[in-house]
Design brief:
This protein is α/β, with parallel strands linked by helices and 280 residues long. The chain has one domain: TIM Barrel, CATH 3.20.20. It contains 12 helices and 10 strands. Helix 9 packs parallel to helix 11.
Length: 280
């Protein structure tokens, strides 16, 4: 860890791990992602009370967290890019761009973010999209180095739309490890990685990263299954999770946060985390 990033990283990785609740889905322009996020002020209020380590938001909503006076509120992780690979159809032109290309982290500095996050898309037959992501990361890395801002890179290996339809992740361990290694080589301070198809292969992702790895959640699943899989990934060396829909689309987000925090910070296994959720 670079000395200049340590203060901000410490805000996220309390006691060694991090639960980052992602609610930055508005930048994806995908209607299904917005279910549960209609009342952003209410969602943020609920999450502040639930006390995860961090909340991931875009600039236009970050004031809802940072204007709250609570001293021990979650750290802000700021999404600073947007793109169109998330929809259920393939666009004629696929793109990813920074929200502010000239000063890419100025909004994060203004809002006192603990970290910024940028995508690294790897889609079949979309080399220009990949090139745009590499260019985005290069610009952001330079700005982060200048101001001591931690950089989270989100490598995403995705399947062709005609296989499953829509935004679907390829869980091939070889592909994920290769893209994670690229993110590490580009200077990531944190990597947000998709789970491998076989959880027991996830240690390879951790080894390739050489920086803290947080597991990306993806679409909403049965919670007991999510907790079991999360425990398996933690046992492979993950230092936490970045989960969104599996928290904010749940009937009791606070109880889900409690279960995941117990897993990250107290070593709870899947069954124990499930019991904690049910008590919540």
């Amino acid at each position: 860890m670079r000395v200049s990033t340590k203060a901000r990283m410490n805000r996220m990785f309390t006691h060694g791990g991090c639960l980052d609740v992602a609610i930055d889905h508005g930048v994806c322009n995908e209607p299904s992602f917005m279910v549960g996020l209609e009342d952003m002020a209410g969602v943020v209020g609920t999450l502040i009370k639930a006390k995860p380590d961090a909340i991931q938001m875009a600039y236009g909503q970050a004031d809802l967290l940072q204007n709250c006076p609570e001293k021990d509120k979650p750290a802000l992780v700021m999404r600073i890019d947007m793109g169109n690979p998330y929809n259920d159809h393939r666009h004629r032109i696929m793109w990813s761009m920074l929200q502010n290309a000239d000063e890419p982290i100025i909004g994060a500095l203004e809002m006192d973010a603990a970290c910024v996050v940028v995508n690294l898309f790897m889609l079949p037959d979309e080399p220009e999209l990949f090139r745009q992501c590499v260019e985005n990361i290069s610009r952001v890395r330079a700005a982060c180095h200048k101001y001591g801002m931690p950089l989270m890179i989100e490598p995403l290996v995705m399947l062709p739309n005609d296989i499953k339809g829509g935004y679907q992740v390829d869980g091939d361990a070889d592909k994920i490890v290769t893209l994670v290694r690229l993110a590490s080589e580009m200077g990531a301070d944190i990597i947000k990685a998709d789970p491998t198809e076989r959880p027991e292969d996830f240690h390879r992702v951790v080894e390739a990263a050489r920086v803290p790895v947080l597991v990306r959640g993806g679409g909403k699943e049965d919670l007991k299954t999510v907790l079991k899989k999360s425990a398996a990934l933690m046992s492979q060396g993950a230092m936490g999770m970045v989960y969104g829909r599996n928290i904010y689309q749940h009937d009791n987000p606070k109880a889900v946060v409690s279960a995941l925090m117990a897993m990250i910070h107290n070593g709870a296994e899947g069954e124990e985390a499930w019991d904690i959720y049910n008590r919540g």
